[in-house]
Amino acid sequence: MEPDLAVLLTELVEKIGLLRRDLKQKGDLEKYEARFARIERKFSALAEKIAETDPEYAKALRTAFRMPVRSLAFRNADHLKNNQ
User: What whole-number distance in Å separates Cα of residue 41 and Cα of residue 34?
Assistant: First the structure.
């Protein structure tokens, strides 16, 4: 996968994960539980397809979806390290 596309996809997945986390913290996730279940199924299928050619990137995407804050922290640390 092209690096620019990988970054954009990771950022999108992090945003979805952050939205899910925010809804859960506010107690509103129940209203959207079915929608998020469908999103998660589609995301899992995407991650499985990506894992066929790039297992490490698929793992990073899964982290971005399930633990978006952690994913952002690692990306920010990498960004800072690369810019020094």
Answer: 11
d(CA 81, CA 83): 6
Degrees to nearest 5, angle at CA 79 with 59 and 72: 50
Q: What are the b/e assignments for 23-35, b being 16+ CB within 10 Å?
A: beeeeeeeeeeee
Q: Say which DSSP state 32 is in.
A: G
pLDDT tens, the chain, 84 aa long: 899 999 999 999 999 999 999 999 999 999 999 999 999 999 999 999 999 999 999 999 999 999 998 887 777 776 667 776
Tokens of 23: 């809804």
* pLDDT value at residue 1: 83
